[in-house]
Design brief:
Layout: H1 3-24, H2 29-34, H3 36-46, E1 61-64, H4 70-80, H5 119-133, E2 139-144, H6 151-162, E3 168-174, E4 177-178, E5 181-182, H7 183-186, H8 192-198, E6 202-207, H9 211-219, E7 228-233, H10 256-266
Parallel strand pairs: 1-2, 2-3, 3-7, 6-7
Antiparallel strand pairs: 4-5
The chain binds magnesium ion.
Length: 274
């Protein structure tokens, strides 16, 4: 996909995710919107994945550690062909496998996540496994910035550098907000880049809602013998004028009128699964 196609796809992913949340009357709007560009870049251009053979041993591994932002993740997996888009209409309904945090019964989902702080430790294990078995796959892990208060993140950060896992690409959706307010008020992270560098990681920062910047980062050259951290500066609620940069939209559901406003702002006709 070209960068322009990726941008349009990311907005369709946003529209699908916000529709799922509206229809189910539950979900995590803000984080699904901020991460939509990252997920679209990865699944529609960067990751080496096999939708018809999801467990292919040569696949790149992706872990959504900020599991509550699963609506965009399910939408992009369906868009990429891991399962029928129509199943997105079952989100958070009784009996559905498309539930409120990533569920490994869904094709393409590696592990159940959402208890925060678990994704990076698992990703470190997968990357170490690739090194020890001579496999060439890469491992990607997307975390939230509120999630950085979890101690297990920093244990994994030490291990990733210790084992020189240059096949590991961790990312933080740095939208500056978490469920209860600003990350700097709840559990201050800055100087965040210096912290990851001190743990021995190769650290880059980009605008995480800039598709071209994301593609250039992932397709560029990367340091050898160190794991990689991308601090992706994003806007929580990105694309929805009523939700941008508002912590209350971490877990808020749009009204009928707001759903219509979202489609207009995203320049899409509506959900792609209806
Ligand atoms: Mg956040």
């Amino acid at each position: 996909m070209t960068v322009n196609e990726l941008k349009q796809t990311a907005n369709q992913i946003r529209a699908d995710a916000v529709t799922m949340i509206h229809d189910a009357a539950t979900g995590h709007t803000g984080g699904a919107m901020s991460a939509a560009d990252i997920l679209t870049a990865l699944y529609c251009r960067i990751l080496n994945v096999y939708p018809d053979d999801p467990k292919n041993p040569d696949r790149d591994r992706f872990f959504l550690s900020k599991g509550h932002s699963c609506e965009g993740y399910y939408a992009v997996l369906a868009h990429r062909g891991f399962f029928d888009k129509k199943e997105l209409a079952t989100f958070s309904r009784a009996g559905s496998r498309i539930i409120g945090h990533p569920n490994n019964q869904v094709p393409g989902v590696e592990v159940c996540t959402g208890a925060l702080g678990h994704g990076l430790p698992v990703a470190v294990g997968a990357a170490l496994g690739a090194k020890r078995t001579g496999k060439g796959y890469r491992v990607y892990c997307l975390m939230g910035d509120g999630e950085q208060a979890e101690g297990s993140v920093w244990e994994a950060a030490m291990a990733g550098a210790n084992y020189r896992l240059d096949n590991l690409f961790a990312m933080v959706d740095r939208n500056g907000l978490q469920i209860s307010g600003s990350t700097e008020d709840v559990m201050a992270l800055e100087d965040f880049k210096a912290k990851w560098q001190a743990f021995g990681w190769d650290v880059c920062e980009v605008d995480g809602n800039d598709m071209e910047a994301l593609v250039n980062y992932f397709e560029g050259e990367h340091a050898k013998d160190k794991p990689h951290m991308l601090i992706a500066h994003t806007i929580k609620g990105k694309g929805l004028p009523f939700a941008e940069n508002k912590a209350e939209w971490h877990h808020k559901v749009p009204s009928d009128e707001q759903l219509t406003e979202a489609y207009r702002a995203l320049d899409v006709k509506g959900a792609s699964f209806k």
